[in-house]
């Protein structure tokens, strides 16, 4: 199954309480085979494709093997490493025209290699690892998760409160503003000139979990390829509160970001923000239904229509309205979006329906017409012992995708995806 939205709160509490209580040495891992095919007629440069489901030019596939080891070194000190092997299994240029990691060659890499120590209620973890915070997090939609070279400090001395501080130095993604992995998935590059974050998670009132985060990332080099505007850093914060009581689910999110940029030789700053609300109901072992709404502010001063709420290290967003597959639409400037999610276990199968619609009014730039985006995803998934199987159908209708030319709204297209994961 596709686990792209792991609960931040659960992850933080696990790290603080039991993630490092490793007994002796443990080995675990998984083997993945992911496949995706779609029938769009035009690519991003408006060129005609050999469209059709299961056709090579509009399909991608890749396999990966991950073997992880964790061990106690001394009392309170542990270490872990995960070795990954990525391969196309001969699919590339035969059955598919692209791979999930963006590369075409088989490779090996360590996605994780860390050392951790715990004293009292404080844990420190240093090395290469996955992160899960609202605005800097590992994206796991691919066969290889994005990871970071960082240092994390977690403390739980305050009752019902987890405090987090982290420094991030490098990551394996192509750019701060881009998504996915680089053409060489084993290549790690600087994350700005290093980024800092501090956060606090509190659940003093047990049904309510509140969290607050602040991020600061500066850079001495340009982070975009624009001719006149270059981002040189960001400062941003994230506030969130989630309620789960008697089956009722509710949540609110707010984030604000300040972009530092050099424009025509002058240093300037540009601000934007976003908010989201969620309401739902959960009947245990029966169904979960949620509706959500988000709005991103306008940003007209820079001329780039800079958005808000997306992963600073990728393309996804933790906003409630994020699309199931086509990331990055809901966080554009001057965009409103809503999402409807319905999941239910039925006869041993996990069924899900996920619908997102987003409208970008003028993208923060005068003279640009309204643009709409809709995505509906239908999920059928099941675990057969250690084997997880997920089959997904995705309907996409976007004015800005599958376009014949720049002046024509895009046509709808279909996507079919299959995820096979064997856990050991």
Describe the fold and architecture.
The protein has 424 residues and is an all-beta fold. The chain has one domain: Porin (Beta Barrel). It has one helix and 18 strands. Strand 14 and strand 15 form a beta hairpin. The longest helix has 10 residues. The radius of gyration is 22 Å and the shape is globular. The N terminus is likely disordered.
Largest sheet: 18 strands, antiparallel, barrel
Level-1 CATH class name: Mainly Beta
Q: Count of helical segments? A: 1
Question: What's the average pLDDT?
Answer: 86
Q: Using the alpha-carbon principal axes, give the shape.
A: globular
Chain-wise SSE layout:
Layout: H1 8-17, E1 25-38, E2 59-74, E3 77-87, E4 107-119, E5 122-129, E6 148-155, E7 161-171, E8 189-202, E9 208-218, E10 229-245, E11 248-263, E12 266-283, E13 287-296, E14 335-346, E15 349-360, E16 371-384, E17 387-398, E18 413-423
Antiparallel strand pairs: 1-2, 1-18, 2-3, 3-4, 4-5, 5-6, 6-7, 7-8, 8-9, 9-10, 10-11, 11-12, 12-13, 13-14, 14-15, 15-16, 16-17, 17-18
């Amino acid at each position: 199954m596709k686990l792209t939205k792991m609960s931040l709160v659960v992850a933080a509490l696990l790290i603080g309480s039991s993630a490092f209580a490793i007994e002796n040495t443990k080995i675990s891992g998984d083997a993945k085979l992911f496949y995706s095919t779609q029938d769009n007629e035009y690519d991003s440069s408006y060129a005609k494709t050999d469209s059709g489901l299961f056709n090579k030019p509009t399909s991608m596939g890749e396999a990966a093997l991950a073997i992880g080891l964790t061990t106690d070194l001394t009392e309170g000190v542990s270490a872990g490493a995960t070795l990954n092997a990525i391969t196309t299994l001969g699919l590339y240029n035969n059955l598919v025209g692209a791979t999930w990691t963006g590369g075409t060659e088989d490779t090996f890499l360590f996605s994780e290699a860390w050392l951790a120590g715990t004293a009292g209620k404080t844990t420190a973890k240093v090395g290469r690892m996955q992160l899960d915070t609202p605005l800097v997090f590992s994206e796991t939609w691919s066969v290889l998760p994005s990871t970071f070279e960082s240092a994390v400090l977690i403390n739980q001395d305050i009752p019902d409160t987890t405090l987090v501080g982290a420094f991030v130095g490098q990551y394996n993604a192509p750019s701060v503003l881009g998504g996915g992995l680089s053409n060489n998935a084993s290549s790690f590059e600087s994350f700005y000139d290093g980024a800092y974050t501090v956060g606090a998670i509190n659940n003093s009132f047990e049904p309510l979990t509140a969290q607050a985060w602040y991020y600061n990332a500066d850079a001495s080099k340009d982070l975009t390829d624009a001719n006149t505007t270059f981002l040189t850093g960001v400062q941003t914060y994230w506030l969130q509160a989630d309620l789960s009581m008697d089956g009722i689910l509710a949540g609110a999110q707010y984030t604000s970001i300040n972009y530092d940029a050099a424009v025509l030789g002058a240093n300037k700053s540009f601000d934007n923000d976003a908010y989201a609300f969620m309401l739902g109901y959960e009947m245990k072992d029966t169904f979960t239904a949620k509706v959500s709404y988000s709005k991103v502010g306008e940003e007209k001063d820079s001329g780039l229509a800079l958005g808000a709420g997306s992963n600073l290290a990728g393309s996804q967003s933790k906003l409630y309205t994020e699309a199931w597959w086509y990331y990055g639409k809901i966080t554009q400037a001057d965009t409103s979006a809503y999402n409807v999610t319905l999941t239910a276990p039925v006869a041993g199968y996990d069924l899900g329906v996920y619908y997102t619609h987003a409208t970008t009014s003028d993208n923060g730039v005068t003279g640009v017409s309204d643009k709409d985006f809709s995505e509906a995803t239908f999920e059928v998934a099941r675990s057969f012992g250690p084997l997880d199987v997920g089959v997904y159908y995705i309907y996409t209708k976007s004015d800005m995708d599958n376009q014949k030319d720049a002046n024509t709204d895009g046509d709808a297209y279909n996507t079919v995806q299959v995820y096979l994961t064997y856990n050991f």
